[in-house]
Backbone:
C-alpha cells in the first residue's frame, strides 16, 4: 500500500540538520561551498550557450580568501544562483 502526502519544511528546521549530519567536517563543508560556486559559474555559462542568459558571462573564476583578523573565509564567484523553485526542489530532495 502506498501513501501520498505533502511535506512542509522551513529553513530554520532543515539547516541545523544539514549542518550537524552532512557538514560537521569543516573540510567537507568548505569543499561543498567551493563546489557550489563552481556550479554557479557553470550554470551561467550553460544558460548563455542556450540563449537563456543575455548578460555578461565573464571569466569563470572562483576565489577563496581569508581574513585572519575577522576569522572569516569568503568564497566568491560571478555565477548565477538557484531560483526559488530550484531551492525548493533540492531542499525537498535532501529531506527525502
Residues:
Amino acid at each position: 500500500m502506498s501513501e501520498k502526502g505533502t511535506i512542509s519544511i522551513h529553513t530554520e528546521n532543515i539547516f541545523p540538520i544539514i549542518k550537524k549530519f552532512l557538514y560537521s567536517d569543516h573540510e567537507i563543508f568548505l569543499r561543498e561551498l567551493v563546489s557550489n560556486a563552481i556550479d554557479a559559474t557553470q550554470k551561467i555559462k550553460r544558460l548563455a550557450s542556450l540563449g537563456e542568459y543575455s548578460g555578461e558571462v565573464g571569466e569563470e573564476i572562483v576565489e577563496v580568501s581569508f581574513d585572519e583578523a575577522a576569522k572569516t573565509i569568503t568564497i566568491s564567484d560571478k555565477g548565477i544562483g538557484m531560483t526559488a523553485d530550484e531551492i525548493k526542489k533540492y531542499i525537498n530532495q535532501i529531506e527525502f
Summary: The mean pLDDT is 80. Residues 11-95 form one domain. Strands lie at 62-67, 72-77. The two ends are 19 Å apart (CA to CA).
